[in-house]
Amino acid sequence: MGVPTNLLPPSLLAELQEIKRRLAAQERAPAPDAKFDRYPTTEWAAVSRGRVPSNAWSSCGIANVTGLVYDRVELKFLVDRLTTNQAEAELRVAAFKHNGTSKECVSASRSIRLRGAASPGVGTVVVRWVHGIPYGWDYSTGDSVYTIEVQHRYLVGPSTGGSGWDGNYAIGNMHYCVGLPDSRISATPNGTWMPSGVGIVNDGTAGNVSDPFI
């Protein structure tokens, strides 16, 4: 014989409602097509990016991850023309919730600061990140869209410093964005960054969802 809900304390009743919400969210979640989710993007060339007003975070790689099953993601992208003391970049990965015309940053990795080399060249960056958004990206309302975005802003620059160069570094879209269980990806809430071919000034600050972005 069950206990009437009107006899339950408010805290327990609230917990039961939350369990019901999570179960409903899982029932509404789309079934994955494979053992992991893969979100391919089309661009795999580093495209020149100019200065953004006030140097706010600007997205250059976007993946729609609505319904992502796992809380770990791996992303890979190119950087080009990062030049020490002339064009240096600060990068982060952030997750956004979209409702109609509004966009809210709900999770962000720490930033990483790249200084490049004495001569401009191409490098690659891999980041493995625990995005920290629980329960399957919130299916409770059914009207939210989530994206994971590679964002960047200038650390130093742009400075021309040479004939025929516009002073802007270049950065490519995400080559892939996948969700995998922890047994497949070693990741941290702040992000596990693995740049190749570019120098690191130092690790940036912890993730801040309140940072200004475009």
Describe this structure in words.
The protein has 1 helix and 13 strands, in the order αβββββββββββββ. The chain has one helix spanning 10-28; strands spanning 37-38, 47-48, 58-64, 72-80, 88-99, 102-108, 112-116, 122-130, 145-156, 170-171, 177-180, 192-196, 199-203. Strands 1, 2, 4, 8, 10, 11 and 12 form a 7-stranded antiparallel β-sheet that branches. Strands 3, 5, 6, 7, 9 and 13 form a 6-stranded antiparallel β-sheet that branches.
Topology:
Blueprint: H1 10-28, E1 37-38, E2 47-48, E3 58-64, E4 72-80, E5 88-99, E6 102-108, E7 112-116, E8 122-130, E9 145-156, E10 170-171, E11 177-180, E12 192-196, E13 199-203
Antiparallel strand pairs: 1-11, 2-10, 3-9, 4-8, 4-10, 4-11, 5-6, 5-7, 5-9, 7-13, 8-12
Q: Short description, anyone?
A:
Helices cover 9% and strands 38% of the residues. With 214 residues, it is mostly beta strands.
The number of helical elements comes to 1
How confident is the prediction overall: mean pLDDT? 77
Rg value: 20 Å
Number of strands: 13
Spell the H/E element sequence.
HEEEEEEEEEEEEE
Q: Note the gap between the termini.
A: 56 Å
Given the helix and strand composition, which structural class is it? mainly beta
